[in-house]
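Last lecture ended with a question: if I hand you only a sequence, what can you say about the shape of the protein? Today we answer it with a concrete record. The protein is LTA synthase family protein. Below, first the input exactly as provided, then the predicted structure, then a couple of comments.
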Amino acid sequence: MTATDKIEPSLPSASPALPGIVALIPLLAIAALIVGCFYFVKKYREANAPIPRLVFVWVAPQFALLVLATVSCFLQAAGTSPVVFVVVCLITLVCGILTLYVHLPHAPKAEPEDSSANNTKNSSSKQSSAKALPINLRALGIDVLVIIVAAALAFMAIDLPWSEWLFPTNPLSIAIQAAVLIGAMVIMLSLCQGHGGGMAALVLVCAIIGMVQYFTAQFRGQALLPGDILAAPTAAAVSTGYRYVFTNNCMIALACASLAFFICSFARPVLRGGKSWMRVLSRLAVSALIVALGVQGYTSVNLRLDYDIVMDYWNNSRLLLSYCEQGFIPTFLSGMQSMPIEKPEGYSAEDAERLEAEAASAYDEIASQDQNRMAAEEQFESIQPNVVVVMNESFADLSTFENLWAGYEGPTYFKYGFTGTAQRGNLTVSVNGGGTCNSEFEFLTGNSCAFIGYGKHPYATYDLEGVPNMAQDFSDIGYATTAIHPNLASNWNRETVYEQFGFDQFIDITGFEGAETLHSGVTDAATYEKVVEVLEQSDQPQFIFDVTMQNHSGYDQNNISADKLTTYHSDALDDEGNRQMNEYLSCIQASDEDLQYLVSMLSELDEPTVLVFFGDHQPFLTDWFNHNIYGGDTDEIMHQQRMFHTTYAMWANYDIAGNEQNDTQVNMSLNYLGATVKQIIGAPLTERDKANLTYFSKVPALNPFGYQTPDGAWYDLEGGPEAGIIDDMAKVQYLRFATYVQ
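The predicted structure:
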C-alpha cells in the first residue's frame, strides 16, 4: 500500500480573480435594493400604516453580502467564475426584493414582522380556541417547512466552502448533521418565541464556520480541530498575514445563506391562543427538552467506536478527507469526544511512580560512571551559564525534500558556518504549519503530544498551574527567567501560561515599539538584541526563552523586497508553489543571517552563555510538497514523518566540561531537548528529566504519529518492538501531566 492509496481530497480551487470592474454588478444590485427599500417605505406611507422597521433587519444581510461581493472585487479576492458571481449577486438581490415584497401592505395575508406579536396578542383575546386552531396549524406547517429548508441551506453553507462534494458520502453522517441542524433550528425558533431571527443567526454561524474551515485548510494545510476553538483569539491576531480569495464554492455557500435568511423571515409564532406566559413557557420547555435529548445522545454514545465517525489524523489531507466523507458537524463532534486525555490501560498512580523511579534509577546508574556528566556537574557548581533558547518560527531545512530539484542546499550559516556546537541534529516535532504552542509545550515541560492527542493545544485547553517545567526548574536554582515573543501576549494564552510556568517577566509586542519588521512581524534580529539587553541588565544567571515571529505564514504576502527574495525554481511545483516557496526561503535566509548576528553578539559577551536554537515546525507548504512530490512512498509512516521534523543546535561561548563541542550529531524529538540541555551543561536533573533521558536511549523520537527506534525505523505507537516502553512513557506522563490538568 502506498501513502496515497486512499482518496486524497483537494480544496475547491479558485479561478483567476475577477477584475475590479465586475464590482459594478453588486453595486447595481445594491442600488436596486435601496430603490426597493424606498418603494417599500412609500407604500406604507400611502397606506397610512406604521412602517415595520424589522423588515429592514431582514434585508440587511442581503446588503452585507452584496457589499462583501463588491469589496472582494476591488481587493482581487473574488476567485470565482463570472457566471457564478453574477448568479450569486442576482440570488441575493432577489431575496432582498422578495423580503420587501411579501411585507408590503397589499401583500396577501402578509403581516409586518414587528407587529406580528402585537397582532397575536390582540387577536388572542378575541378569538376562541376553535378559531385559533386552524391559524396555529397553518403557522405550524409554515414553520416546519421553514425549519427543514433553513437546515438544508445551513448544511450546505457549512460544508460547501471547503468540500468539492455536495454532501458527505456517509449516509449516517448526513442523518446526524441534519438532525443536529434541525434540532438547533427548533431550539433557536423556540428561544426567539416563534420568530426567525435565531435561525438566521444559526445559518450565519454555519456559513462563517464553513469559511473558517476553508481558509484554515488553505493557509495552514489543516482542517479545523476542536482545540482551535479555544485558540480562536490567537488565530484572529495572526490572520492579517494572509490573502483571502473566495472560490465558486464560497460564493455558492453565501448564496445558500442569503436564501436561508429570506426563508427564515417567514417564521411566525405558532401558538396564538391562550395566555402569553404559557406560550413563552411552552417554547422554553421545547428548547430545554431538545437540549436534554441532544446532550443525552451525545454523552451516551462514542461516535468513533459506535459509528466509526473518526478524525483521521494521519496527515492533513486525510484529516480533511474525514470531514468530506462525514460532514463537518459529526466529525467535529467526534473530535470533541476525544479531547480529554485518555488514561492508559492498566494505569495506576503507584505503578506510574514505580516506572518513573526505575527509569530515573537506570539513568543514575549510568551517570555515576559517566566522566563527561560528572565533569559538567562539577563545572556547573562554579559556573552557572546563561541559557538562551530561541524557538524560531517555521525554521526548517527544506533541502531534506530532495525531490524538489530546486538546487536549495539549506540555511547556509546554520548548516555550514555554525560550527563548534555541543550537539545538533534533526528534531522530530508534533505539528506542521501551525500549533507553535505545542512545540513550546514539549520543550518546556518534557511532555510529548503523542500522549495528549493530535489537535489539542495544552496552552489553550488546560490549566497548567503546577505543571513541572524548565522555567521553574531554573528559577529554583537561582536563575532569573524571561520569556520573549514579539506579538500579542494573549496569543496562545501565553500571558497566563508563562505566569503559571513561573517566568519572572514576559516581554511581548509592547516591548518592541519601533522595531524593524520583516514579512509577518518583528525581525529575529530585534528579538536577539532584546535578549542581549536582558543579559546585560543583571549579574544573575538568566534563562531566556525567545519565540520569534518574522517567518510566520502565509507565504503569499508578496512583501519581500527584490534584493532579499530568493529565486529558486522547482519543476515539481507550479508558479504559485514556486512563489510561495521563495517567499518562505527568503524568510529563512534572513533568519539564518540573524542567527549569525546573535552568535557574534554572544561570542563577545563576557558571561558564559549557552544558546539552544531550534525550529518549531515546518511551514504548511511541506504538506503540498510531500503529497505532490512523494506521493508514491510505500512507507506510510516515513511519508508522514517527513513533514514533522525541523532542526536544532546547542552552542556555547565557553568550553563546556565533558563536551568536545565538535558538532556531534544526535537526532531526537523535542520533548527530550530540554533534559538534554541540562544534562550537557551539568545542571541539576529532576526525576522526570532522568526518566526521559532513559527513555530516549530506547525511543529517541516520537510524536502523535509514531515512534522511532535507535536503528532509525519508525513504528505505530500501538505496536513495534518498544511498545512496552511507549506504554511506560504514557503512564508516567499521565502521572506528571494529566493528573495536574484534569
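Comments.
1. The first strand starts at residue 386 and ends at 392.
2. The first helix runs from residue 24 to 46.
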